[in-house]
Amino acid sequence: MNTILDIIKKYRSQLNKNNFHGDIYFSDDNGQLQIDRAVFNKMIDKVNSNFNEQILESNADWLLGFKRENFEDNSGKLFRMDRNYYRIALLDETALVALWSEETEGTEKKTDECDIIIWKEIENIDWYVDEVKGDFFRFFKKNSTDQIDLNLTRFGSPEKETTIKTLLSLFLEIIEFVNNQEQDNINQYNELKQEIENLFSEDKIKQDNTREKAFVLLEKFKNDYIDINSINVDADFYYYYKIASTEKSIQAIKIFEEYKRICDNANLTYDIDITNLIGQAYADNKDYLSAVNNFAYSLENSEIETKSILEENVTTAYAELKNGFSNIDYNKRKLIFISYDILHTSMDGMVVLKKDNLPQNIQFPLNHPKENEVYICHPINKNAYLPIKEFEKELFTDRLHELMLLLGSLGAKKIDISSQERNVNTENQKNNMQANASLDAKINSARGDYEKNSSEDGSLEHELNVKFHQIFNPKKAPFIPNNLVWYHSNLGWQRLANQRLNGNLLIHTEVISTKQVETLSTNEIKKLNAEITFLWGKAKAGGSYTNEIDFKSVTERNYTLEIAVEFEDIDNLQQVVSNENTVGIENKTTSNESYQQYAEEICFMLEDDGEIDEKERRVLERLRKNLGLSEEEAKQIEEEITQLSQNEKEYLEEYQAIIADGEITERERRLLNRLSSSLGISEERIKELEK
């Protein structure tokens, strides 16, 4: 027999309709069930209503059907309404569907019984006679103690024993046919898999004709055995060899992305052989971040006997990741998790780094990084990372201090800061404290007084480490400091500087807010919390992660300050400059770019031993001439770099006072960092001063 329909045709003459109390429906030669449309639709609807979904389709190729109805007339009974007992069975090449239903509008209606039996799951069928239950067929499942009993009333209630035996023989022959067909499919499946594996195991895949044959066989395997929208061992097999047979790493990565998407949609794990294979493809493509992540996934989920090879892959890729870390796109390394081990992370934009093996060119605050903590990349200084828990305030403070430095460099003589939440009114201050404040004597050659409100706004001043009211006596012509970070991406600050340098702006108001810098969205923080908890579960943290980031407070916390500044008349500053024979950067006869290039070259030559030898001096001389700098200008630039400024002396005094008490605490380091920022001293220069 070629099909189940052929088997049914074989028994059709023996299953005469007259041998059933109910009805039997056969299909024609085209597999179309010969049944009244209304009768058939009721069968389909009754079954689907039991599952509350569309289990059966009306246009399916049903090959055989049965129906038996018994009406119970209770018109003469007071407490029992009429009932109709409805029983059906439908079968096709894959399954048998049987239903029993008590149809009534009365009470005590019994629940419908509906069974779906998959032919390939059945090992045997037998006929049982029971005086209580009545005659029934028992379907035994393969490799299981489960069994399903179906009363013969569901099969049209055959009248004679010979008819029952004929019906049983039909079902047994269908089971035998399905099992034989399944075994044939298994044999074909195994032969095809073996042929594909042989092409790779014999290292023939490097030959063009063999690779082409492998592609053809893989596609046949995919079409015959794989549901491409789900992942199982067959899909893993297909994608592994599909990636392995692809010459170009870019194409292999595209195939993996398809595989990964299907796994993610189904919430399934990846096959570690595939992630290890694609890790090498990423490494070949110089994407060491993705390579490390996939190698780490394979290592975390591998058996002990394969760990040594995988550990070598992780170590090699991580070394390359370290060397090129700064060149990785900002959005791909926006967040880092510090761990004892190299771990896989599923969150885009996060990198796991080993605490004792970090890239050399990334920077952290004092006493950081700490194990099992998350850090976020500075949006401007892409090599600096801040603790995730304080990044909003730290970024805001950083921008505020830089703005104060810029205003002072442009010749500010008075700065008033007010909080839009709590305005500072110096006229109504009840308790003022006088204090001396210096603002980069090297830049402004000035010292001034400021009035500090000791009420509630004093706490905000202390929190942000900035004075809300300052008066200065600037001396130098306006210029732009070299070590600015935020300035180059802030068009408003650039316009302000241009107005001061090329005009005579005297009054300006600037608003600075945490909302002006986009860092993490609410959705990103939600994902981050979930990922941190997952990483903590894998890391050797000795506990559970409890420091969940409050995304609501992070996104809603807002510092907004209004900064009003009065500048010194630029003509007065120019007069002072000419009297003291001082040259501001923007007023030099040469360009600001020439000045910066010459200054950077001097700093580079001073890095190794702090001195400029004869060979370096000759190089500098050639550079000076090429840049069009005069000898006097070059000398002044070098003196400004090599001599301690007044601000640097002030910082050293504070540093030496703190270090005299012993080790610098984390709080003291934060105070020093803010002092250096307000004085306009770079991190590199701070390191030199503290040596």
Automatic annotation (TrEMBL):
Keywords: Coiled coil. Residues 631-691 form the R3H domain. Residues 175-209, 620-654 form a coiled coil. InterPro entries: R3H_dom (IPR001374). PROSITE patterns: R3H. The keyword Coiled coil applies. This is TerB family tellurite resistance protein.
